[in-house]
Design a protein that fits this description.
The protein is mainly alpha-helical. It has helices at residues 17-68, 85-91, 97-104, and strands spanning 115-117, 131-133. It has three helices and two strands. A two-stranded antiparallel ribbon has the order 1-2.
């Protein structure tokens, strides 16, 4: 009977330098993908917040116009010394102080743009928005369907 007298090869526990390099490369790739996705998510949420603000202001303007019997293209009566529709909405409680500041231009859109009013004392015609965002052309801060507004 023959006996095996050759020394046994035992693998040492641990990782090699190549394995460690591959793990670090995979982790860096996943981190980059995470940051790109997070940035896109933040940009999308900023756009959604801006569009919601524009939509809420438009609903308030139309509600105020319908409630008090104003026609599109007309001006509201001077109330508290002003004909500004935004001031009327704030004074009557349709919008809060933050939204009023956004409409008047003292607060910016969450995406970094600013809100613009074409004519603050005239109710817009049907299909036209009362307030818009300066980023409406570049980052689509605009309501998609507004023909019946």
């Amino acid at each position: 009977m023959k006996t095996n007298t050759s020394p046994r090869v035992v693998a040492k526990p641990g990782v090699t330098l190549v394995e460690l390099t591959i793990i670090i490369a995979i982790m860096l790739t996943l981190t980059v993908v995470l940051f790109i996705g997070a940035r896109a998510w933040i940009r999308g949420s900023d756009r959604a917040a801006c569009v919601m603000t524009i939509q809420n202001v438009q609903k308030c303007v139309r509600s105020y116009q319908n409630l008090y019997g104003y026609n599109p293209g007309s001006m509201p009566y001077a109330d508290h010394g002003t004909q500004s529709i935004a001031d009327h909405l704030y004074q009557k409680g349709y919008i809060d102080e933050g939204m009023h500041a956004s409409i008047k231009g003292s607060e910016d859109c969450p995406g970094g743009g600013h809100y613009e009013i074409s004519n603050e004392e005239v109710f817009p015609p049907i299909g036209q928005l009362y307030v818009g965002c300066s980023l409406s052309g570049t980052q689509r801060h605009l309501l998609e369907r507004r023909a019946d507004w």
